[in-house]
Specification:
Layout: H1 3-15, H2 54-67, H3 72-83, H4 90-94, E1 106-107, H5 125-133, E2 138-139, E3 158-159, H6 161-164, H7 168-175, E4 176-177, E5 205-211, E6 217-220, E7 227-231, E8 236-241, E9 260-261, E10 274-279, H8 283-286, E11 288-296, E12 306-307, E13 331-340, E14 353-365, E15 376-378, E16 385-389, E17 411-415, H9 423-429, E18 453-456, E19 461-466, E20 474-478, E21 484-489, E22 501-502, E23 505-506, E24 529-532, E25 545-546, E26 563-567, E27 573-578, E28 586-590, E29 593-595, E30 617-622, E31 628-632, E32 635-640, H10 677-695
Parallel strand pairs: 1-4, 5-29, 12-14
Antiparallel strand pairs: 2-3, 5-32, 6-7, 7-8, 8-9, 10-11, 11-13, 13-14, 15-16, 16-17, 17-18, 19-20, 20-21, 21-24, 22-23, 25-26, 26-27, 27-28, 30-31, 31-32
């Protein structure tokens, strides 16, 4: 592959950051909708789940009054339009062009055949607004902020729509949009989605075994090839080649040649080790990657950071005592930056890395010896680094770290690792390493909270993923205490309840020297999926969830769109389906699984059992083809065609390509154009591919 290939591929990767796609209930500030403490809003008719509190409601009322509309029919329409900011889908309604808007996208046509919106939205609301309000004067008109076809009359704050737009067509070309399978529009009423029959559960998942070794992390190579990086908990990373399905070949990985060996730096134990790896979005250009691991400061001088048990969170490490023989904060959680070695002409061709740290991103001492999470991921839409951290251990989070915004324990953090702070900035902001705070982090300007926090109230997030088709779907499995294992849909400033709640159930800690948080003082976001401990094999005596992926491969079309997760101990796999689509409402059920009779490597079966013995299911992985893998104690397994295990799937032979669904016959408006990042990606991919064939 030549340099021209890399330029094109890197450009395509950058294109994915241009336009976010919102496809679930989400507010314009990227926070989750909520139920206000008051019974209902006084001005806007949004009861139940909304994006407005009483202060927002009052602000919208004041804005409406300042517009001073004399016509009652137009005033009624304008009120509903202003109140659309309270809609639980307001992120989609107001930011379709990824630029903040004053007016939501107004439905200007009938709903397309692949729309998820209810039939109430079949009216041409944009035309109704034009016909009713075109000749009505408005002070400080919200429509005047988008002048696409007219000029504000001089020396006047009062405008009519006809002063700014020559026709209904011009007006609706700016503000209108159709509802389709990927976006919503505003029809004058709160957005609702179609309730459809949930898809039939799949017959089962067919697996093939392609590796015998145990790994904790799998990351596809950023160059888009059939290679992937695998790492184990002990501290090694390997670069492997993934065989084509049907080839009968196992994973090509040389155990004697590690891409990076950090076993001297990594402290390995049951809940310690190399916990995560992540490759920079421009890895093919800069060769940068990041490793999350545990270290022991008693054995390694470079393992030294601030203790998470400190006076800021009313915790004194001298009062904790040893935990499993370790002193408080003897073990540390680290994120460090590395780079490929310089022997390769291009970063993508490198087969090894320089073992010396380029930069220490983060170091934090751990008060106890469990619940450290440790996974790291780059956000597909923002390019920031997300870091999943547990509550630090101790039964019931005794110091209430997960709810304390002055603590980074029990949180998902978000770093800008491309902007290196000065020493003064690190000291003044109280940072835990060499990174910057993204400006839109929810507590970036809050002096009483840790600025790194993106979400809170987590016990031990164990394996998170972004949906490759809808990046706003950020799903994390969170390990429970005694009763419930949960899957959470992560949003900005989302509070997932621990230790006030364990999943959907109220929780009371038996020991709380760090105090408690009252249920009335938080807005908990409850799990979208999960299971009770009683649902898994009681003979195991334990339960611990392992998060996976929304399945986006067409290898098993009957699994497409389902979120897969598992239990570490019980050898059980669940599939979760969303209904209605784009609603954020999921139902899940166990899915049978078996091993293909022609698996490249033989699967092991338990005595008197027809189910393959996977042992511990540590993690899931996904390659560049979107095929999903299980990383287990007994080896690496890949999901393959269901017919190889004699599972029935009517869709398996229906089509060998992904159907984009029926296309709309309507020309896109300016308001609905370029809605989602992947639309741009595929359109420009095709164009650049042609350019590549001709000129590179």
């Amino acid at each position: 592959m030549g340099w021209g290939h890399f330029k094109i591929f890197s450009f395509l990767i950058l294109l994915q950051f241009l336009h976010p796609c919102f496809a679930l209930p989400l507010c314009t500030d990227s926070r989750a909708p909520f139920t206000p403490n008051t019974t209902h809003l006084q001005f806007c008719s949004y009861n139940g789940t909304t994006c407005c509190n009483s202060a927002d409601d009052l602000h919208i009322r004041s804005q409406f009054q300042s517009i001073n509309i004399s016509d009652s029919a137009c005033a009624s329409l304008l009120k509903s339009i202003l109140c659309a900011r309270c809609d639980q889908f307001s992120a989609e309604l107001y930011r379709v062009d990824s630029v903040p808007r004053e007016v939501p996208v107004l439905c200007n046509s009938t709903v397309t055949s692949n729309s998820t919106q209810s039939n109430q939205d079949t009216n041409n609301f944009c035309s109704q607004v034009w016909n009713t309000c075109q000749n009505i004067s408005m002070l400080h008109s919200p429509f005047a902020s988008s002048l696409k076809g007219g000029v504000v009359p001089p020396n006047s704050n009062s405008t009519k729509l006809t002063d700014l737009w020559q026709s209904q067509s011009d007006f609706c070309d700016t503000f209108g949009g159709a509802s389709d399978g990927e976006s919503t529009c505003y029809s004058g009423e709160p957005v609702t989605l179609n309730n459809t029959s949930p898809p039939s559960p799949p017959s089962g998942i067919c697996l093939e075994k392609i590796g015998n070794m145990s790994y904790l992390n799998m990351v596809p190579h950023p160059d888009g090839s059939n290679r992937a990086f695998f790492s184990n908990q002990q501290g090694k990373i390997w670069l492997a080649t993934i065989p084509n399905q049907g080839s009968g070949q196992p994973l090509l990985l040389d155990q004697s040649h590690a891409f990076l060996d950090l076993t001297d730096e990594v402290h390995f134990d049951t809940e310690f080790g190399m916990m995560g790896i992540a490759f920079h979005p421009r890895f093919t250009e800069n060769g940068r990657f990041f490793v999350s691991f545990s270290c022991d400061k008693a054995k390694w001088p470079n393992c030294a950071g601030r203790c998470a048990c400190n006076s800021d969170v009313n915790c004194d490490p001298s009062t904790l005592g040893p935990d499993n023989g370790a002193q408080p904060c003897q073990f540390q959680s680290v994120i460090a930056e590395y780079t490929v070695n310089g022997t390769a002409s291009q970063p993508s061709l490198a087969t090894g890395a320089n073992p010396s740290e380029v930069r220490r991103i983060f170091t934090m001492g751990l008060p106890f010896t469990s619940h450290h999470g440790g996974q790291i991921l780059f956000g597909p839409s923002d390019g920031y680094l997300y870091f999943m951290m547990g509550d630090g251990g101790g039964v019931g989070d005794p110091y209430n770290f997960a709810q304390n915004k002055k603590s980074l324990l029990g949180k998902i953090m978000r770093f800008d690792i491309d902007k290196v702070p000065s020493g003064n900035e690190v000291s003044q902001l109280g940072l835990w390493g060499n990174y910057s705070i993204p400006k839109d982090n929810p507590f970036a300007n809050d002096k009483e909270s840790q600025k790194e926090i993106w979400a809170l109230g987590l016990r031990n997030p164990w394996r998170c993923s972004f949906d490759s088709e809808r990046p706003s779907y950020f799903l994390c499995a969170d390990v429970g205490q005694d009763q419930y294992e949960e899957v959470d849909l992560i949003t900005k400033e989302g509070n997932y309840g621990w230790h006030v709640y364990e999943g959907p159930y109220g929780y009371t800690s038996l020991r709380s020297p760090g105090g408690n948080t009252s249920s009335g003082s938080i807005r908990p976001i409850f799990p979208v999926m999960g299971y009770n401990h009683s649902e898994v094999n009681s003979n195991e005596g334990s339960a611990s969830i392992t998060g996976g992926y929304i399945y986006r491969s067409m290898t098993d079309p009957c699994m497409y769109g389902r979120y897969l997760f598992a239990d570490l101990y019980a050898g059980a796999i669940w599939g979760g389906s969303e209904n209605p689509i784009n609603s954020g409402n999921f139902t899940s059920s166990k899915v049978a699984f078996n091993c293909a009779h022609d698996s490249p490597l033989n699967c092991t079966f338990s005595p008197e059992s027809s189910v393959p013995a996977l042992s511990y299911i540590f993690s899931f992985g996904e390659d560049n083809k979107k095929d999903v893998f299980l990383l287990t104690n007994s080896g690496v397994y890949r999901i393959v065609r269901p017919s190889r295990c004699n599972y029935s799937c009517a869709k398996e032979n229906a089509s060998s390509v992904v159907s984009p669904g029926p296309a709309s016959s309507l020309a896109p408006s300016k308001a609905s154009f370029l809605r989602c990042s992947y639309e741009i990606f595929f359109i420009l991919s095709s164009f650049l591919f042609l350019q590549f064939m001709n000129f590179v």
